[in-house]
Amino acid sequence: MESFSTLFKKEHMGDLVLAIVFIIYLILGLKTPEPIANLIDTLVGKVVLVLIVIYMFMHVHPVLAVLSLFVAFDLLRRSSLATGLDALQKYAPSEEKKMSQFTAYNQFPYTLEQEVVAKMAPAKSSGFSLSQATYKPLMENLYDASPVNA
Questions:
Q1: Could you list the residue range(s) of the whole structural domain that residue 54 is in?
Q2: Whole-model pTM?
């Protein structure tokens, strides 16, 4: 109880005002404005918010520090709702989900055609060789066209 009485002293009036503002923010559930939400919903914004909470735990009353932790979590949640990142993470499919769907669609049963081809006798090799041809090709009249390799 003595801990709460130190919060109401004259030198801690700023802390008391900040605690009241935090409580009002949590109770009213105000939406985060778009410009502020865009700043907070970045990696730098989240790191700065965590650093502020750590600073609060080290330098202010413990009740105000815990209250600032709740406000920080709520501010992060409201910012992600305002920017749409929350919905994107919930409803946009990830690469793993897409690949699992693709593999499910690409599972085909063993068909009759595959069975018949597997039972067929192996094809004889055509004896393809790079030896000289026994014939000589004849060229038609080019009608003043230039050769292809020119």
A1: 2-89
A2: 0.55
